[in-house]
Specification:
The protein is built from 20 helices and nine strands. With 511 residues, it is mainly alpha-helical. Helix 3 crosses helix 6 and helix 4 runs antiparallel to helix 5. It is elongated, with a radius of gyration of 26 Å. This is Histidine ammonia-lyase.
C-alpha cells in the first residue's frame, strides 16, 4: 500500500521542480508554512503603518504604471486594488491548460510566502484553497509583455479570489462565485497593496518554463534512445562514442550523451567496427554526442534559471521589515526567463533537426542499404515515404518558431515601461517547439523500428526494450496503412514517459 503524500508547506524558499510537478500534475495538496505566515504578518503590519503615516509609496498609496505619481487617499485603498484586477484582466486567446494555471497559482503563492509583498496570509490561503479544491481560473493565453510581470494573465488568475471572473472545475466552466460557494470558500476583500502583490510577477512564464524543462528532460532521454536504435538499424559505428574522445573535449552534455549511447548499445550485435562496413558514419550518427550533448548543456542552464525563479520574489515594490526599507525596482522583469526559453527552444529544435536527418537516412535506400521507404513492395506500396515529409515540415516550422522573442520590445504605459521581455511569448512558443519535436522523434522511432525488422541480430541492452515497447502497440509495416496512426502511437509512448521508463528498467541513461 502506497504511503500517502504529505502536504507541501510553502516557505518561499524550498520549492523544486519535482515538488512543482507533484502539485501541478499529481494534485499534491499545499499549505502555507507557519514561519511563512509569521513573516507575512510582519510585512503586512509594515504596509498598515505606511498607510497610516500617509507616506507616498508606489502601489500602496499611488496609482500604477504611468499613474505612479497620482496619490490615492486612504478611503479608496480597497477600491484601488479591486479596480486593478478588473482593469488588468484583458487577456485574449484560448485559455491556458490546467497544468499551466495550477503552476501559476502555486508559484504566486510561493512567492508571496517569502514575506516581502505585504499581503495578508488569509488572501494567499484562499488562493491555496482554490488550488487544493481544483478550482482553476480561466486565464487567456495572450496579452502579457513579460515585464511588470505577467499582468493580464495574473489578473485573470486573481479575479476569482474576489468572487469575479470565471473558473473551470472538473472540466466545467462557470462563474467564480458559484465555484467558491460550492466549495465553501469565502471571497476576499482586498486591502492596500494586495491586488498589486497578486498580479505583479513572472508566474505565467515561470510555470510554462518549468513545464517545458520537465518535458525537455524526457525528450532528451528519448532522443538518445531513438538515435541509438537508428545507429543499430544502419549498422553504425559506436567507436565514435568512446569515452576518451569525449573526455578530451570536456563538455558535460557530450560526455553524458556518449555514455548513454554506450549503455543503450551494450551487447548489440547489429553495430559495426570501423572499416567493417564503412570507415566512419555520417555526422547525424557520428556526432550524436556533440549535438545532443550541447542541447543537454542548454537544458541544464534553463533548469538553473527556472529553479531560481521558483523561489523568487518578483513583485514591486518589495518591503524589507528588518531594514525598514520599501524598494521599488524591477524584479517582475522576465528577461532571465525569456532568454532561457529562447535558448532552450533553439536547443530542442536542433534535436529535431538531427533526428529528421537520421530518418532520411533510414528511408533513403541510397544511404541505408535498406528497402526504399522501408517497404518490401515499393511502387505498389509507398511505405514510410511521407513520414519523412512530415518530419521535414515540423523541423522547418520549428526553425521559424526559434526566432527569439526576447530580442523584441514594445514600450507601454505611456513609455514608463519602455523595455519589456516578451517572456510569455518565448515560453508559449517553446511548448510548440516541444510538441513538434515529440512528433519528429516519434517518426524516427517508427522508422528505426521498421528498419530493425531486417536481420535477426541481437539488439542492445537499452534499444531492445524500446523496440519491444513499440511493437506491443504497433505491428511491423507489411501493407500501406494510415501513417498518422503510427505516429500517434509512438508519440504517446514518448510523451507519457513510457519509452524512457522502459529503457531505464534495463540500463542507466541521464541528462
Amino acid at each position: 500500500m502506497m504511503k500517502p503524500v504529505s502536504r507541501l508547506s510553502l516557505t518561499g524558499e524550498h520549492l523544486t521542480l519535482e515538488s512543482f510537478e507533484e502539485v501541478v500534475r499529481h494534485y499534491r495538496s499545499v499549505d502555507l508554512s507557519a514561519n511563512a505566515k509569521v513573516q507575512m504578518n510582519r510585512c503586512r503590519q509594515m504596509v498598515t503603518d505606511l498607510v497610516a503615516q500617509g507616506r507616498t509609496i508606489y502601489g500602496i498609496t499611488t496609482g500604477f504604471g504611468k499613474f505612479s505619481d497620482t496619490v490615492i487617499n486612504q478611503q479608496q485603498t480597497a477600491e484601488l486594488q479591486r479596480n486593478l484586477l478588473r482593469s488588468h484582466a484583458c487577456g485574449v486567446g484560448g485559455p491556458l491548460p490546467e497544468e499551466v494555471v495550477r503552476g501559476m497559482m502555486l508559484l504566486r503563492a510561493n512567492a508571496l510566502a517569502k514575506g516581502y509583498s505585504g499581503i495578508r496570509p488569509s488572501v494567499v490561503d484562499t488562493l491555496v484553497q482554490m488550488l487544493n479544491h481544483r478550482i482553476h481560473p480561466v486565464v487567456p493565453s495572450q496579452g502579457s509583455l513579460g515585464a511588470s510581470g505577467d499582468l493580464a494573465p495574473l489578473a485573470h488568475m486573481s479575479l476569482p479570489l474576489i468572487g469575479e471572473g470565471e473558473v473551470i472545475v472538473n472540466g466545467q466552466r462557470m462563474q467564480a462565485r458559484t465555484a467558491l460557494d460550492q466549495a465553501g470558500i469565502a471571497p476576499v476583500a482586498l486591502e492596500a497593496k494586495e491586488g498589486l502583490a497578486l498580479i505583479n510577477g513572472t508566474q505565467m512564464m515561470a510555470s510554462l518554463l518549468s513545464l517545458a524543462v520537465i518535458r525537455g528532460k524526457n525528450l532528451l532521454l528519448a532522443a538518445d534512445t531513438i538515435a541509438a536504435m537508428t545507429v543499430e538499424a544502419l549498422g553504425g559505428i559506436p567507436h565514435a562514442f568512446h569515452p576518451l574522445l569525449h573526455q578530451v573535449r570536456g563538455h558535460r552534455g557530450q560526455i553524458t550523451t556518449a555514455a548513454n549511447l554506450r549503455h543503450l548499445l551494450a551487447d548489440s550485435r547489429r553495430v559495426t567496427q570501423p572499416g567493417e562496413k564503412r570507415v566512419q558514419d555520417a555526422y547525424s550518427l557520428r556526432c550524436i554526442p556533440q549535438v545532443h550533448g550541447a542541447s543537454k548543456d542548454t537544458w541544464h542552464y534553463a533548469c538553473q534559471v527556472t529553479e531560481t525563479e521558483l523561489n523568487a520574489a518578483t513583485d514591486n515594490p518589495l518591503l524589507f521589515v528588518e531594514g525598514d526599507e520599501v524598494i521599488s525596482g524591477g524584479n517582475f522583469h522576465g528577461q532571465p526567463l525569456a532568454l532561457a526559453a529562447d535558448f532552450l527552444a533553439i536547443a530542442m529544435a536542433e534535436i529535431g533537426n538531427i533526428s529528421e536527418r537520421r530518418t532520411e537516412r533510414l528511408v533513403n535506400p541510397q544511404l541505408s542499404g535498406l528497402p526504399p521507404f522501408l517497404t518490401r513492395n515499393g511502387g505498389l506500396h509507398s511505405g514510410y515515404m511521407i513520414l519523412q515529409y512530415t518530419a521535414a515540415s515540423l523541423v522547418s516550422e520549428n526553425k521559424t518558431l526559434c526566432h527569439p522573442a526576447s530580442v523584441d520590445s514594445i514600450p507601454s504605459s505611456a513609455n514608463q515601461e519602455d523595455h519589456v521581455s516578451m517572456g510569455s511569448i518565448a515560453t508559449r512558443k517553446l511548448h510548440q517547439v516541444l510538441d513538434n519535436l515529440t512528433h519528429v522523434l516519434a517518426i524516427e522511432y517508427v522508422c528505426a523500428a521498421q528498419a530493425l525488422e531486417s536481420g535477426d541480430k541481437k539488439m542492445g541492452k537499452g534499444t531492445s526494450p524500446a523496440y519491444e515497447l513499440l511493437r506491443r502497440q504497433l505491428p511491423p509495416l507489411t501493407d500501406d496503412r494510415e501513417g498518422h496512426r503510427d505516429i500517434e502511437q509512438a508519440t504517446e509512448l514518448i510523451q507519457s514517459g513510457k519509452l524512457v521508463q522502459a529503457v531505464m528498467k534495463e540500463t542507466t541513461i541521464s541528462v
